[in-house]
Amino acid sequence: MRGTSLPRSLFLTFLLCCTGVKVLPAGLTVSPSRSQFFEGESVSLSCEEDDSSAGWTLRRNTTRGTRAQCGGWGKLDGLTCNMSYLFPHDTGVYWCESREGASSSSVQITVTGGSVILQSPVLPVMEGDDVTLSCRTKTPPSSLPAAFYKDGSLIRTEPAGHMTVHQVTSSDGGLYQCSISGHGESPSSRISVSERSSTSSPSTAPPPPSTSSSSSQFVPYGLLSLTAAIVLVLLLVLLVIHHINRKSKANQEDGEESITYSDIEILQQKQRKDKPNQDSGPSAVISTRTTDDVSYSQIIIRENRRREFSREPAVVYSTLR
């Protein structure tokens, strides 16, 4: 059990570090898809969510209040908020927000009481796409010659009131405005240009909403993958070290059980004149002592010397008569 507890704990730690609940972002759509409206027009805003359990809510910031939910300023129909009659005080920032606090990209909607508006994309455009701007009046005819401006500087005048910017780049982003002689000028609207990824192809459709404020609400996939890879490498290293330590400890225990210690002592015993009979004992003595799994042996080898006997005196036999 102890051998498997460490790998199991490391594996659980890896899962806790590299997995989690992620709230998928929602996209805010505006119909009709433009950022400027005349007073009295209608508009519908919808939260197109990928996760219905996130509980997305449409909010706005205007001069009348901040973080106001649809209901006080529009009619809620499922995930769509309908505004049947727009007023200038409806000008503001609109976005979708989940129960966890995640936000979609925001859009700026401008309602004017004037007679000229600039029809421009309400969402960021993709780099490389073509963007058409239209300058129109509240009353017909709407296709009149119009002058277009970017950041306060005149771009050019178009006779039909339409201007197309081909293959937009990041330098094309900014504040745009138009004016029609005898009718006035429109409010300014910002056009944002998003960088195209290497895998995406050119398209005239509006790109998915993407802003710096919304991207900060979600964990970057690259950072998550890097963290998972680092944790996995550390997990493998710890498992290898643990396996080596267990194997080394097992080999050490097996080696200690198979060792037999022997102690051999060789003694040279000299002949003692006063006790000659002791030399007749055994020439080797072996003693063994066993404790647990270790056996100790002692061997004593004695050297027997040749015993010398004194010669008997010569005997003379004689016969007596």
Number of helices: 3
Strand order, largest beta sheet:
2-9-8-4-5
Residues in helices, as a percent range:
10-25%
Please tell me the overall pLDDT.
75
What does the oligomeric state look like here?
single chain
Low-confidence stretches: 9-24, 200-222, 269-278
**Radius of gyration (Å):** 50 Å
**Biggest sheet architecture:** 5 strands, mixed
Q: Count of DSSP E strands?
A: 22
Note the main attributes of this structure.
alpha+beta; 321 residues; 18% helix; single chain; 5-stranded antiparallel sheet
Describe it:
There is one protein chain. The protein has 321 residues and is an alpha+beta fold. It has helices at residues 2-18, 212-215, 221-257, and strands at 27-31, 36-38, 43-48, 57-62, 65-69, 75-77, 80-83, 92-97, 107-112, 116-119, 125-126, 131-137, 146-150, 153-158, 162-165, 174-180, 184-185, 189-191, 193-194, 261-266, 284-291, 294-301. The strands form six sheets. The chain has a five-stranded mixed beta sheet with strand order 2-9-8-4-5, with no helix packed on it. Strands 13, 14, 16, 17 and 18 form a five-stranded antiparallel beta sheet that branches. A four-stranded antiparallel beta sheet has the order 1-3-7-6, with no helix packed on it. The radius of gyration is 50 Å and the shape is elongated.
